[in-house]
Design brief:
alpha/beta, three-stranded mixed sheet, Rossmann fold, 12 strands
Length: 390
């Protein structure tokens, strides 16, 4: 089955400020690591810093703010003041626009000094260049949140930071949906050019957990928790990767403290995780009575059920983008990237989802609808001669 790279990339680009703008358990993870939040939560940094976050009010952003403050750092947020404006009432907020050509642009940042900036909302090189150049004389460290979608060839397992990145013929284009990975790569370059040797370029995989507005992971914990027969993609042996926003935030802030520079893939877990293991964890963690019916990729393709979009997280081993399921994170692990147990992320995600308005709970933002799931399962059983009588 061929997974549309454009589908994956647009899935990331469509949420725009998902990584731009976003709670913890302790002990060993099921994959052998230590809960990243437990590692730093409750302990104060030896040298508190002033940190500017570009964005900061949705998904990853709040996780960054909360962890930074738990470590004793002082945080300032810069954004348009339109998303969750009441969040963090005791945190300094500066209003403006990332685009210097719009409204007051970056004026609120002029003449201000911070120890570090975390750029969670950069998608266009021109805009990242503007903020990085403005801040360069007054900021010691620049963290840019990029994406593993930057890589040119996603057909192989083990992609690492030395792998070639995607390019675009017209480097001035600002069509993010069509050129997401290449533009992210150019954004990394723009930051490094403005502040050579002082930039931490972070390439996350799928970011998951409470507050995720996309449901690109939440679909599975929520669907499995509801029980019954669950349409499950492939044979369960396809590798999957993702990272809890809280673990990513903890790792970023800890590396702000260390002034870490360079390029790092940031996804997880520590050891390879298979699709079957993910769904089994969802079932155990939620106490569900779900049963999994594994449907092969060819049949799903015939039914027009696509990996990633209709079956979130899943990228089949036959896909030209299978490399997104097993990216090398050895370099980040060496700098302290750790993960909470997947079961904790599952439980926390379901608990958060249950607090959402009824209309939000009624319609997940990713995955197949309940009606479509029943149709595909019925067709599968019909073909295999396993349809139930009556």
């Amino acid at each position: 089955m061929k997974l549309s790279r454009r589908g994956v990339i647009q899935g990331a680009a469509a949420v725009g400020s998902l990584w731009a703008m976003g709670c913890a358990t302790t002990g060993k993870t099921a994959e052998g690591g230590t809960d990243a939040s437990a590692q730093g939560q409750g302990a104060k940094a030896s040298a508190p810093k002033s940190i500017l976050i570009l964005g900061g009010t949705k998904f990853l952003g709040p996780a960054l703010v909360e962890f930074a403050r738990s470590r004793g750092h002082t945080v300032t947020l810069f954004n348009r003041g339109k998303t969750n404006p009441g969040l963090f009432p005791d945190v300094e907020k500066l209003e403006g626009d990332r685009d210097p050509n719009k409204g007051e642009g970056l004026k609120a940042l002029q003449g201000r000094k911070w120890d570090a900036v975390v750029d969670t909302s950069g998608y266009v090189p021109r805009i990242v260049k503007a903020s990085a150049e403005l801040l360069a004389p007054n900021v010691g460290h620049y963290v840019f949140v990029s994406s593993i979608s930057v890589y040119k060839d996603l057909s192989q397992y083990g992609i690492d930071e030395s792998s070639p990145v995607a390019t675009v013929e017209d480097e001035t284009t600002e069509k993010v949906a069509e050129n997401y990975g290449a533009l992210k790569a150019l954004c990394e370059k723009a930051a490094e050019t403005a502040m050579p040797g002082r930039v931490l370029n972070v390439r996350p995989g799928l970011i998951v957990g409470p507050d995720d507005p996309t449901d690109r992971f939440s679909y599975w914990p929520v669907r499995v928790s509801r029980g019954g027969e669950v349409l499950s993609p492939g044979d369960g042996q396809d590798p999957v990767q993702f990272i809890d926003a809280r673990d990513l935030a903890a790792w970023i802030i800890l590396n702000v403290e260390r002034n870490t520079a360079g390029v790092f893939n940031a996804t997880g877990p520590t050891q390879p995780l298979l699709m079957k293991e993910l769904l089994d964890t969802c079932k155990t963690a939620t106490g569900s009575d779900a049963s999994f019916t594994w449907v092969d990729a060819a049949f799903l393709e015939k039914q027009k059920v696509a990996p990633w979009q209709d079956m979130p997280v899943w990228i089949p081993r036959s896909s030209e983008e299978k490399g997104l399921g097993r990216v090398s994170i050895a370099k980040a692990l060496a700098t302290g990237l750790t993960f909470r147990p997947t079961a904790d992320t599952v439980r926390d995600t379901v608990a958060w989802f249950k607090t959402q308005p009824p209309e939000r709970q009624a319609k997940l933002g990713a995955g197949v609808t309940a009606e479509r799931e029943k149709e595909v399962l019925a067709a599968w059983h019909q073909e295999k001669g396993t349809a139930k009588a009556g």
